[in-house]
């Protein structure tokens, strides 16, 4: 056969397959829908995985871009921001990098261009854009002179801010904007896909709106404190491992040089990919595995449908074989039919994926855009085409193999069929059902474990009453509020005005709101006790607040007293601590009257403990409760505070009212981060909720497909055994006997599938163990619930055709003989 004949033959096969599909709309719809769900779910999840873990990041040579964090030996696994003194030494001593730059995210207020708005500004040291491998799409970056001039008032805008506030005006370069009351010249606009925020340790935790030069003072070499992030570019030929080894040695050298500051500290070097994807990787891989299981179950279902149709078409295959079609030719025809179904399922899957991506983007607890555009690009389309092809092969292999083995003589007998072929068909279909049930068990157990884990996390007591509490962030511009008294007066007035609003029960303020930021932590010593050895510092979270904060969040006073009115208006050197600090550092002793020297001020002076409050969670519900100290606001006069407002009803409607009160004090002062306290808490568990929900959706889909599979097998078995059932009834078998026979066969398949599934779930449970909270991967209640649920669904799926079989009349059944 020449190539022209081969092409024509393939075209004929495709046309025949299309006619066959159109002639059986019910079969085609079910098959294409099953494939579309499997392919679509895989395509949607792969699109996110591709953007987060595979696709090239929008930086020049991103494989050489790394992030450097400090890490304390006593708090392993928790990357910490970098001290300027160490950054300066790293730049001097490290040879594995061709460039290194620091940055820190802060807030600034945009005024004079529409409504006042708080923006996130990333202050960057010299060479930052060069190290990152990015450049503005419009205008330019910072010149060398601007990067070392402390008075250079120039900024580069993010693409999003340029569009949102300036309408995408290309003449924005050279214009002046007001930031914190200071005129700044716009010198450039970044491309739309550049995201340089390292969210894992950002003190702001919000997308960057603009960039500004950051000139470290000469005193940075001796400045204590850790508050900056570091980006570096590996030298050509340098590896991540080599850089890590070198930086570990550099950290050891600085610890020897600065034992009171760096003892117990080291450096962690992370690739930019790991930094951005980080803790998202395990959840994405888990979801990718889940949708792969859904696709396998869909394949088993479609293969079952094809086997059933193949049994009906045995006579057709026998005739084709009788007129000269070989086994290969028959198999090719059947594969062509499956390929047509696979192509239709793939196209429908793209529609499902596109719709799913919109839902996922809207419901996702993370900003998927931080990885770049999340869309159906060429890589995703290639993936969809590949899995559609593989799906067709998987679905069509068994039917094509069986169809090519048609027994001509047996199949052409009047009403006859090959007994051996029928037995093979039955065993194959039963094997597919067992596989579906086993895979469904794995998915349901995974979903059950995640839900149990989420329930345990959700039930954690945060240590405060978060109901009916509104929070608003207010960051005052230092140029305008350039003395502590001005900032204290503003916030004191703001709290008093808000507290007197109708419907408001109490109001307060705090510098670092729990669940909203990383906060500030530092070392301290206890007056009258020897200081701890280097590297074993006493560490505490530090916030400044007023009494209204404790009352609004209902943190109980365990011992001592609140701040006095004088302490809230004048520097008094007093502090309130939490129970966690009292238990750890004053075991069995009364801390009241003791004094702490907290390394948070200049100079650091003793502050007397006047009260002890209940401990509360800070960064997340799953984190440990940390020692905390609370200063009255005058002790450390912050210009950026969060107002907390307890209302007598839903707090959300109070937001615009409170904002108006703030702007009645200063019309140019914006507010930000307007959320209820419950929303802040929910944000910390949003990723767990999202993963649990998706896994539950996939597991439910798997259970539905498995139920459809066992229903199909039992229905087909009933149709094939109709004569036998008629004989049994004629010989005296009752309806209950027939029902028990069919349901028993289904229960047997279900039991085998459940047993295999439980074994697989136990073996694979370790893969998600790291994602669970206070739940083991072999949780007995979860396994028991899944076995009972899936077993019940499967038995019910067998019971429906069993009831139909029990109602078959003997005369009707025997006519099939």
Describe this structure in words.
Strand 6 and strand 7 (about 180-190) form a beta hairpin. Helix content is about 50%, strand content about 15%. Helix 12 (about 325-365) runs antiparallel to helix 13 and helix 15 (about 420-460) packs across helix 23. The strands form 3 sheets. The chain has a 6-stranded mixed barrel. The chain has about 800 residues and is α+β, with helices and mostly antiparallel strands. It has 25 helices and 21 strands.
Tally of individual helices: 25
Mind summarizing the main beta sheet? 6 strands, mixed, barrel
Distance between the termini: 44 Å
Number of strands: 21
Mean pLDDT: 83
Low-pLDDT residue spans: 408-412, 414-421
Structural class: alpha+beta
Radius of gyration: 34 Å
| Neighbour order of strands in the largest sheet | 2-3-8-5-7-6
Q: Per DSSP, what share of the residues sits in E-state strands of 2 or more residues?
A: 15-25%
Shape: elongated
Present the secondary structure layout.
Layout: H1 3-23, H2 25-54, E1 65-72, H3 84-93, E2 97-111, E3 117-124, H4 128-132, E4 138-139, H5 144-148, E5 154-157, H6 159-166, E6 176-179, E7 182-189, E8 210-213, E9 229-234, H7 240-257, H8 259-262, E10 265-271, H9 272-277, H10 280-312, H11 314-322, H12 327-363, H13 378-403, H14 408-412, H15 419-458, E11 469-475, H16 484-499, E12 504-510, E13 521-526, E14 538-545, H17 547-553, E15 557-560, E16 574-578, H18 579-585, E17 595-598, E18 606-613, E19 628-632, E20 640-647, H19 655-665, E21 672-676, H20 677-684, H21 686-720, H22 722-730, H23 735-764, H24 780-806, H25 810-814
Parallel strand pairs: 3-8, 5-7, 14-19, 16-18
Antiparallel strand pairs: 1-9, 1-10, 2-3, 2-6, 2-9, 4-7, 5-8, 6-7, 11-20, 11-21, 12-20, 13-14, 13-17, 15-18, 16-19, 17-18
